[in-house]
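Before any further analysis, backbone shapes were mapped to integers, which produced the following:

***
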Amino acid sequence: QVQLVESGGGLVQPGGSLRLSCAASGFTFARANMYWYRQLPGKERELVAFISSSGGTTTYADSVKGRFTISRDNAKNIVYLQMNSLKPEDTAVYYCCYARVAWGQGTQVTVSS
């Protein structure tokens, strides 16, 4: 079955960086569009970034554009989210998503001094 396991979250100071990873299994990863979402406290889940199956197309939410980078390694079945210049408002649970039909368990990112 589809399995998505996120890692790399944690506590970081404003201006810092984190790299999230999502290890995928149970489907043909190299043919799958992948997404990162996040859910801020008390708010609905929102799309952060998208990457096409080949990695040739990426899109970002306006709030993270220029600071976050989504990438993938189709040989390892992993999708990444590099997060730079983090802000307190980036504090959220971050979820990896396969084709908008399956989700990981999430990883907590807390940006605080």
User: Anything to note?
Assistant: The radius of gyration is 13 Å. The longest strand covers residues 18-25. Residues 33 and 53 are 5 Å apart (CA to CA).
